[in-house]
Amino acid sequence: MRKIVSIALAGIVIIAFGSFIAFRDGGVLSFGTIAAKEPPKQEVSERAAKSLQQKIDALKDASSDPKHKSGSSRMEVTESELESYLLYSLKEEIPARVDTAKVLLTEDTVSLETQITFSSGATGNSVVDALVGGTHDLFLKGKLVGSRGIGKFDLLDVRVDSIPVPNVLIQTLIRKYVNPKYPQVDLNEPFEIPWGIQSVKLERGKAVIVY
Fold first, then answer.
1. In degrees, to the nearest 5, what angle opens at C-alpha 78 toward C-alphas 12 and 64?
2. Distance between CA 74 and CA 55 in Å, rounded?
3. What is the DSSP letter of 108?
4. Of 23-37, 47-61, 90-104, 172-186, which one has max mean pLDDT?
5. Considering only CA atoms, which of 201, 208, 161, 173 is closest in space to residue 32?
6. Is the pLDDT of residue 45 over 90?
7. Which end of the chain is more exposed for a tag (fewer CB within 10 A), N or C?
């Protein structure tokens, strides 16, 4: 169980780190034009990752534009864009090799199935490296809601190689190993959504934001 929990923690830290990089740049809550009908599933590709980067840049520009009225625009991001961004754009930022990634967006819920490979020295902690080395399947699921500029994420499920990891152990390990370096990380607390984003709404196949 110690090994399973260690892999889960390392995986969460890696995915969270990747998400932080994207979120910092406006990537996690990026966008496109909302269509009347749900668009067909895109292919995971470098092109899709670049498309998302263009949207990130547009969001950053809007946040610094004094002529842009807060809350006047709506945008969206698709599952395929997130998968592509994780696999292509963040591969140099994440301290492990993400072999596969499948993002599923449903009503207020996001899940990620990924296969990750830890090389020697991946986490920077020799004890953790010894425990998590190799290739593992990681599943994460959480509830994400955001309104009036405030977001809240609740971790619902974590599994490593199909074995459930108790949330209380994840919380304990985050406090022990993550918070000393990143004291602002708290899965139980709401957070301010950056870039002037007013609301975040997860729907089937896409995330819609108002900014």
1. 85
2. 12
3. T
4. 47-61
5. 208
6. yes
7. N
What sign does the CA torsion over 11, 16, 22, 24 have?
A: negative
**Which two three-digit tokens encode residue 8?**
């889960």
Residue with tokens 């740049």: 25
List the structure tokens of 53.
Answer: 């980067």
Q: What is the mean pLDDT of residues 44-60?
A: 88
User: Residues 202, 71: contact at Cβ < 8 Å?
Assistant: no
Residues constituting the chain:
211
- What's this model's pTM, rounded to 2 decimal places? 0.72
- Give the total number of structural domains in the chain: 1
Of 140, 131, 136, 134, nearest in space to 159 by CA? 140
Q: Which amino acid is at 24?
A: R
Domain with 72 in it: 2-210
pLDDT at 88 over 50: yes
pLDDT per residue as tens digits for the range 145-202: 999 999 898 888 888 888 887 877 777 767 776 677 667 777 778 888 888 889 999 9
Task: Tell me how far apart the alpha carbons of residues 3 and 139 are, in angstroms, rounded to a whole number.
Answer: 16
Query: 126 CB contacts (<8 Å, ≥6 apart)?
Result: none
User: At which residue do the structure tokens 């949207």 appear?
Assistant: 55
